[in-house]
Structure formats: C-alpha cells, structure tokens
Amino acid sequence: MSMAGNLRKVTSLGRVGGLRKVARLARQRPRVDLSHPARSPLGSSVVNCVTYRDGVRVTARGDLVETVERVRKHREGFVWLGLHEPTDAEFAGIAELFDLHPLAVEDAVEAHQRPKVERYGETLFAVFKTVCYVEHEQLTATSEVVNTGEIMVFVGHDFVVTVRHGRHGSLGPLREELESSPEQLAKGPSAVLHAIADHVVDDYLSVTDAVQLDIDQVETDVFAETGARADPGRIYQLKRELLELKRAVVPLSRPLEDLATRPLRAVDPEIQAYFRDVADHLLRAKEQIAAFDELLNSILQAHLAQVTVAQNEDMRKITAWAAIIAVPTMVCGVYGMNFDHMPELHWRYGYGMVLAVISVACLALYRTFRRTGWL
C-alpha cells in the first residue's frame, strides 16, 4: 500500500483526525520516487516516504498516519519523508502530524534561509545550502559557475522530514548509500542528519575543486603574452560566483559546531563524533574559498598592473614617434618662412642637403629610441 500517494491528500488537510480519511486513496496512485535524478516530478511535492527499523527498510503498510502511529506505538524505527518545494497547503497536514513548529515550517516552505540549526522542543530543525558546479565550455563575463539550493531537515526521535529546494542536491543516491549501511542507519534519525550534512559538505569540496580549474585558466590567460588584453569581466564573474559559494559554506560552521559539541536529544552521542569529521571537511572548504578570494584579488591587481604597463608602453611609443616627426616639422617650418635673406636659401644643393639632414636626424632618433626600448 502506497504512503506517498496518500501524502498528496494528507498535505491538504488541517487536522490529524481528517488524515484518516485518506486511507481509501491508498491504491489509487502509485508512489513516485522523485529523489532519483532519472525521474521527473508528476505534480506533487512528495519525493519518497520510507520506514526503517533496525537500519533496514520496512515495507510500507497502510497510510502515513497509520505508519507513524505504528512506529510510535512500538517505539522502534523511524519514518523518513522527503518533499520537494512544497506549498503551504501541501505542508500543513504534515506539519500538524509531526507537530512541527510554525516558524520552522515557514522557513521550510519559503526557503532562502541561512544555514542554521534550531531546536524546537523535541524537534531539531537544520538548514543546509546545497551547491553544484555549472558546466560550461568557456568561462565568460556572464557564465554561471555555481548554482545553489537548500535542504531543510526536521529531526525527531522517530521521524526525519527533508524539504529540498532547487533542481540539484537529490537525496536519492544518499538514501541508497545509507540503506547499504544498516548499522549506521540503525542509530536513528540523527544518522540521516549526519549523512545529509556530510553529503552537502562533500559537494562543497567538489565544487571548490572545479572552481579552481576556472581560476587556473583565468590566471594562465592573464599572465600570457596577451594578458593585458584579457577580459576582466571573467575575473569579476568568478568573484561574484565565489561570493555565492561563500554564503553557502561559511555560515554552516557554527551549526556544525553545535551538532558536534552541544548535547541535543535528537542527536545520538555516537553521531556527534561524525559531525566533527564533517566540520573538519567544511573547514577545508572554507580555507579553499578564502585562498581563492585572495588569489582572484591578486590576479585582478596583476591584470590592472599589466593594463597600466601596456598603456605606458603605448604612451612611450607615441612620444618617440612624435619626437621623430618633430625634426622635419621644425626644419620645414623654419625654411617655410617668407624671408628674402636666409642662409642657403638660394644654394644649388640646399634642397638635397635639407632632406639628408632630416633623414639622418630622424634615423638617429629612431635608433636611439629602439636602443632604449621605447620603440
């Protein structure tokens, strides 16, 4: 019997009592696992709903309400419900079923939140920024390099509710990986929270490695022979995209520190050691981003310096040619004056001599400027 099919009806109800009315819809629509990248949305925010007991996936029986009540009655196992960009109406019934705080529900539906971890009674609410690298053949001043999304996680003692925003950051492969390690999954919902945090931070490292290739390419172009003519827009674009990545990575430090050190009922003490490992990986990503920022500043300054040097070289060339042209201009200007008595004015060889003097003077100036590097 499908649970996710019933959730489409559950999300439109406002009271737990009314949730029982959806049981008759159990066989009308099959469950669609949208967490797998090969599958596409079919007009529903429900991704998947699975029950785990002792780290093993349990075959679903009954609707969501019955499943949750069965888990709570036997006090073993937990339910993992995954949603993708739900609306207020779709999330209302689920929020009441799991007794989620209205402020956390509002954050989960609206998205655009900073990474954080908040505790509402027995429930833990965590926000993670997801990132992915946008492939491109050539970096331009308008290329999108980093795309961001969000994953919100509600963790209770017998449930995990994940809300994903954005078209990347699928948790399907992560779910399969967890199911292959039942001893880890048996530690409860906090194991899922750790796996999501580790998955998100690993994506940070993958993206930083990809961004480094773009920075290396820009650096190579700037310091090439034509570096002074390189497009500075690419450098600014990388800095903007790096800022987007920084907004996702840097604020997560404090939440991970809380998960690794603060005593939280929703987090198994054995899992806290794993969060420390995630925090170490996050620190590496932060250091890489800081280094990239400094490197881009240096590249930009080097590019501007190259432009200044190129402009100075152009000005020297212009000045040298102006000095060479000044010689014939001066001579011709002097002998262009309308005076009857001027030296050599009526000399037979005066015209040729003047041309020879002009040529020799210009050639001497040209060789001098060439020797000093002005031409």
Could you explain the architecture of this structure?
By secondary structure, the protein is an alpha+beta fold. The chain contains 12 helices and 7 strands. Helix 1 (4-10) packs across helix 4 and helix 9 (232-249) runs antiparallel to helix 11. The longest helix has 66 residues, at 269-334. It is rod-shaped. The model is unreliable at 1-43 (pLDDT under 50).
Largest sheet: 7 strands, mixed
- Roughly how many Å is the radius of gyration? 35 Å
Write the H/E string, N to C: HHEEHEHHEEEEHHHHHHH
Measured by DSSP, the beta-strand proportion falls in 5-15%
Q: Helical residue percent? A: 40-55%
The overall strand count is: 7
The oligomerization state is single chain
List the helices and strands and how they pair.
Elements: H1 4-10, H2 16-19, E1 46-53, E2 56-58, H3 64-74, E3 78-84, H4 88-97, H5 102-110, E4 116-120, E5 123-133, E6 146-155, E7 159-165, H6 172-179, H7 182-185, H8 189-222, H9 232-249, H10 253-261, H11 269-334, H12 350-372
Parallel strand pairs: 3-7
Antiparallel strand pairs: 1-2, 1-3, 4-5, 5-6, 6-7
Helix pairs in contact: 1-4, 4-5, 8-9, 8-11, 9-11, 10-11, 11-12
